[in-house]
Amino acid sequence: MNSNELKSESRERETGALNGWGMLLFNLVWLIGVGIWLGLAIRGGAASHWQILSAVLVELLGAGMLGGYFTLQPNEARVLILFGAYKGTVRNSGFWWANPLFARSRASGSPAESVKQAWNCSTSKISLRARNFTSDKLKVNDKRGNPVEIAAVVVWMVEDTAKAAFDVDDYVSYVHIQSESAIRHIASIYAYDRGEENEASLRESADEVAAALKRELQERLGKAGVLVEEARLTHLAYAPEIAQAMLRRQQAEAVIAARQKIVHGAVSMVDMALRELSEKGVVKLDEERKASMVSNLLVVLCGETEAAPVINTGTLYQ
Fold first, then answer.
1. pTM higher than 0.85 for the full model?
2. How far apart are CA 318 and CA 305, in angstroms?
3. CA-CA to 121 of 20 to 30 Å: which in 136, 169, 202, 236?
4. What residue ranges in 98-250 does DSSP mark as E strands?
5. Which pLDDT value is given to residue 202?
């Protein structure tokens, strides 16, 4: 049995809390009523020492209940923890009251710190709003071993508050570190430029790379109760030490691709011209004249400068 099997995943349990306004009214009536009774009893001399002590304790209990009030804004949740035990999550926005002994966050550190957190009356709030961050520019090697600089923007939100609070130490830091690791991994399985037919690349297959990055992030961040809404590359470039060499390579590839297209179009136009002349009987050409015409047309169509026409007043054989 490995450590992963021993570890149990947390599961969020949505719970409710008491209406804050109703509890506030009850709390005020409690404090004022007990205070008035205690004052009248002491003034009239009708209360014993035990009754006075009991009234003081009840008054202190009512004052302690004032620490149970909290508010939640839309897309905000509070994790309820009582002496280290998870009691549920309140997701509804509004003014609420809960047990004032619910801790601010999960207990950690020394026993003294655990007791301090257990008696803390503040709220343990987790934002459920969508967040985004842009990673730093990372220098990694692509599929072919070329060093590249890459960065991405990640849009995420907390989906399971129990996992975010208990399954990782700091879910915000976890998101940042795991995102950097995922970006490095994605960069290593794609080439910067396409090398083979129909090969996906970082530069030309933006949607495919973004989908792969999102899947990778969701697999990693799901352990922290995080939902990845979008992930996309924001920066992609060769590393400075090879940028000039790769730029020359790209320019050479572009020139070759352009030449191939030009030659293919020129050959098609020459073939069309010879066929049209033959079919319409404009002129009868032998093989030598056809070769000369093909040569001249290719020079005109493939040349980078304008061709200067030469008028032949004789024949091809003189």
1. no
2. 29
3. 169
4. 125-127, 131-134, 138-141, 147-158, 226-238
5. 85
